[in-house]
Amino acid sequence: MPTKIYTTNIEEKKIPKILIQILICNSKKLF
């Protein structure tokens, strides 16, 4: 179980960064 929690934590940290980058790119295109 601990390993599962650890991997999910890493994924949760990686996903927001990608989402933020996409949002920034979209905002640059829109504005």
Describe this structure in words.
This protein has one helix spanning about 1-30. It has one helix and no strands. The protein is mainly α. It is rod-shaped, with a radius of gyration of 14 Å. About 95% of the residues lie in helices and about 0% in strands. The model has no long low-confidence stretch (mean pLDDT about 75). The protein has one domain.
Strand content: under 5%
What order do the SSEs take from the amino end to the carboxyl end, as H and E? H
Estimate the global geometry from the Cα principal axes. rod-shaped
Helix content: over 70%
Secondary-structure content class: mainly alpha
- Sketch the major β-sheet: none
Which regions contain 5 or more consecutive residues with pLDDT less than 50? none
List the helices and strands and how they pair.
Blueprint: H1 2-30
Can you give keywords for this protein?
31 residues, mainly alpha, 1 helix
Short summary:
The chain is 94% helix and 0% strand.
